[in-house]
Amino acid sequence: MCRWPSCATAWCAAAPTPSSASSPARSTSSTWAPWASPATATPRPPTSCTTWTKAPWSCGAWITTSPPPRKKSAPPGCRSGWPNDSPTAASPRGPTPPVNAVVPIAPPSPTQAPPRRPRHIRVLSDGRPGHLNQSLGLAEALARRTGATIETLRLPDAGGPPLRWWTALHAAGPKPDLLIGAGHKTHLALWLAARKLRAKSVVIMKPTWPAFLFDLCLVPAHDLSQTPASPRVVPIRGGLNRIPEQLPPKQLRGLILLGGPSRSHGWAGEALIDCLREVCAARPELQWFAADSRRTPAGFLTAVVQAGVPVQPLPRETTPTSTLMDHLLLAQEVWVTADSISMVFEAVTTGARVGLLPAPVHAPNSGPVRGLDALVLDGYATLYTTWRQQGRRLPPPRPLHETGRCADLVLTRLFPERQP
Hints:
By secondary structure, the chain is an alpha/beta fold. It folds into three domains: 1-64, no CATH class; 120-236, Response regulator (Rossmann fold); 253-400, Rossmann fold (3-Layer(aba) Sandwich). 27% of the residues lie in helices and 17% in strands. Helix 8 links the parallel strand 15 and strand 16. It starts with 10 loop residues before the first strand and ends in a 6-residue tail after the last helix.
């Protein structure tokens, strides 16, 4: 056998020299030939079967050549160079554990750095109260978990994207670890400022720029036509808000939140007043309050009071936001017109019994309509018609705090625990 570099031994046929080279006599046994050393062997290409040849260095004997054997795996205790290495040879790094061995991990050092958490959060605002409410809700939820400070920065309307980016970058506050924005006008400034400051970026609602530009996109599920392809896009239920996780005890109060005409819903004022009268009459033990909003038709709240509905008005022009929030947190039962999905989710988050007042639907396939349908289907809110069919009583509330869930998601995705 020819001694190939990868072989460990060489074998020859211990048989007498045949009389003719054309008809060699084959031996019935094989012995190891120590003279067939690697230094003197002439390599020959391996064949699929055993062949016979006479080599000058074989002392006249016929040599059998076979394909080189396959390399065997090293037994336990040997290094990766086996079989050339001695089993007893010690590795400079110590014995090598088996492949499937469990290597113990040393416990973390007492001087190890604490887990990374955002220390300062910068919120970019485009001036719209609804967008700012969602951004501040997420920032406040993160601050309750980490103790981070919050800075709100109003981006200018004039000057275009360059001035907005310059404003987001050169704010007077400390360097942020996280930037949050909602609304199209904040997207470009958010991306550029986060890249320049080496901070994380979170977009609330569906971005108009590609999702890979931001670290995380929290998009309402009703605004997504299909499952997002990017792992940076996370579907959420409805919109975020500033309702805290710790809620005060409920009181004998009821609250009515009035929206207004929108792209997805219309407005039927006279029919709505009749519904409000019936709702208040079903729970006379509650003290009822009614609050309008920016989209509510002018004078409608006054018309409700003049129609004899037993409610105390909370006009938007004279009622502070904090006062309305207190009424919302303390109310046992909250009724919201079906055109305002943000107010519906705020009411659900407070842990109150939530009912939906009827509003004409103009776009059945729109995002707000789909979002409210899913909310009703999951039992978080009750339609006015269903309430009448169930004896004019709302079912017990179901807990839901999407803002807190999103805050935990941001910390898990963008600020994970340091591993030892």
